[in-house]
Specification:
mainly alpha, 2 domains, 11 helices, elongated, disordered N terminus, Mitotic_Regulator, Sel1-like, Sel1 repeat family protein, TPR-like_helical_dom_sf
Length: 233
């Protein structure tokens, strides 16, 4: 959840309910409320007392919703995660999918691939592997426009998208012939591994399971790699 804007977070000591300025937040397109929500979320993750943890998650959701209403796609995506992982009570994948759709509507590439997951795993949406693949392709297009390949958080997002594209292609999605399919999957698994490794080197350590999946995919498809053909994704 890439959600703290460093231009704002350093000034957050005075940024609470009392000092919150809705006009400034509108001008920032929800970046201020996004950052306040992120602070509450991170505090909740480190809180041991269950009642306080619950209150902090509710505060985070409150600020994320304000931010999403101001057009912030990352805030909507973060709300999707909160419902997916039951931060506000029981897990609710239909509500998670609804927020991922909102995040996608606001142009967020992370929301786009998470919506694809909902279709791929029949979680909050009916199973539709081809629909999932189309959302992963769309997420890749959005990432090309929005992501900074030198930013570890963006490396994690890009790597996550490549991993999903590779998995989908390996298992039959897309217009590929025989060994070309596995060669394309190899290229994407390798790219996913590189991006997720860069994210980990940059301090983003919670994508290790995805990094392992990418490495396993590389090993599974390496024999099909094509030195003469590079697929454009």
């Amino acid at each position: 959840m890439a959600d703290i804007d460093p231009r704002i977070s350093k000034n957050l000591t005075a940024q609470n309910d009392e000092y919150y300025n809705s006009i400034e937040d509108q001008h920032s397109k929800g970046a201020i409320s996004l950052t306040i929500g992120a602070k509450d979320y991170q505090e909740a993750m480190h809180e041991c007392i269950s009642e306080k943890k619950s209150q902090l998650f509710k505060k985070a959701a409150h600020w994320y919703e304000i931010s999403a209403q101001l057009g912030n796609g990352q805030a909507a995506t973060n709300l999707g995660y909160m419902y997916q992982f039951g931060r506000l009570g029981t897990k609710d994948m239909e509500e998670a999918a609804r927020w991922y759709e909102i995040g996608l509507g606001l142009g967020n590439e992370e929301a786009c691939y998470k919506l694809g997951d909902c279709y791929y795993y029949a979680s909050g949406k009916p199973h539709d592997a081809e629909q999932a693949y189309q959302w992963y392709c769309k997420a890749n297009d959005l990432a090309r426009k929005h992501c900074d390949y030198k930013n570890p958080e963006d490396n994690a997002v890009i790597g996550s998208i490549y991993l999903r594209l590779a998995t989908s292609i390996e298992h039959g999605a897309g217009d590929f012939e025989n060994e070309d399919r596995l060669a394309a999957a190899y290229q994407l698994y390798k790219s996913a591994e590189q991006q997720l490794r860069a994210a980990e080197y940059g301090g983003i350590t919670w994508y290790r399971k995805q990094l392992e999946k990418a490495r396993e995919g590389v090993q599974r498809t390496e024999q099909y790699r094509s030195p003469d053909e590079v697929f454009d994704f």
